[in-house]
Amino acid sequence: MARILLKETCRVGEGSIPMSSSKVWVRIWKLHIPNKECGVAQDMWAGCPHSTLHTEICRGQTDQGNMVQLFENLMHKLPEDALEFFLVQGWLIWNQRNLVLHGGNLQEPGRLNAQASNLLAEYKEALAIPISNGLPQSWYPPEGPLYKLNFDTTVFTDMTTSGFGVIIWNDRGQVMAALSSKGPAIMDSEGAEVLACLQAMEFAIDVGFSKLVVEGDNTNVMSSISSTRTDWSRLGNLYDDIRCLAGRLRHVEFCSIRRSANGVAHSLARYARHLSEDIVWLEDSPPLALEALYLDSISMAN
C-alpha cells in the first residue's frame, strides 16, 4: 500500500504536500519497507561541500520523523550559508524527480551539487547589483545669471514631418522665450535630436541669450555635443554647427536629463503637428504647455 501511495504521488509533479495528508506521510516513512530513501538525495548530500550539513542530515534520517522536522532541526544547527545550500539542494532533488517522471534523464548527483553552488553564486551576484530607484527626475531652474534652454523633438511618421520644441527659463522658473516649430522628415531619433538642438541654439541666439545651460533628453546626442573629438559620422557637420554656435556664447553648458524633466519642451514639439508656420512666445507661457508648466512649478516648490 505504501508503494502504491508513493507511486501515485510521484505521478503528480507537485512541490508541496497538503496538511491533511502529512500524517499519512509520517506513517509511510515509519513503515519497515525498502526503498523509502532517495538514492539521488543520499548521494548528493554525501558529496555536499558543507560537512556540517552532511553530518546533520545523516543524523536527521533517524532522529526526525519528516522533512519539516528535519528542516526545523537544521535551522537551529546550521550556519546560514549551509542552510541556503540545503534548500537549493532540496529544490534540485524535487526538480530532478519531476524531470525523470516526465521522461528526462537522471543526472549525476555530484553535478547537482555543483549546480546548487552555481545557482547560489549567481543569485548573490545578482543581489549585489545596485538597482535604480526609477524615480522620475524633476526640472529645476538655473542658478545665478544663467538661463536654461530645454529642447525636444517628435517625429510624426504618419505625416513625414517632425516637430521641435524649445523653451528658455530664468533662475526663477519664469518663461523668457518659447518656440514650437515643424521640421523635415527624419529617419532616426539621433538625427531628429541633433536638428532640434541646432534650431534651439539658433533661436536662443536670435532672441538675445548668451549664457545658457542647454538640456536635452538624448544621452548620446548630448555626450557627442560635449565631446571635443572630431565626429566623422553622417551627423558630424550638424554637431560641428552646434559647437560653432556654442562658441558665440559667453557661457554654455550641455546636460543630459530624463524625459520627465523635459515635459514642456516635449509638449511644444508635439504641438508642432498642427502648425503651418512657427509659433514664438516671448516672456509669455505657451497655453498649450500649461499642464507641463504646472508640474514643473510643483517640483520647484518642493
UniProtKB/TrEMBL annotation:
Protein name, as recorded: RNase H type-1 domain-containing protein
Domain of life of the source: Eukaryota
Q: Which InterPro entries match?
A: RNase_H-like_dom_plant, RNase_H-like_EbsB-rel, RNaseH-like_sf, RNaseH_domain, RNaseH_sf
Q: Which GO terms describe its molecular function?
A: nucleic acid binding; RNA-DNA hybrid ribonuclease activity
* Domain RNase H type-1, chain residue ranges per copy: 150-272
The scientific name of the source species is: Lithocarpus litseifolius
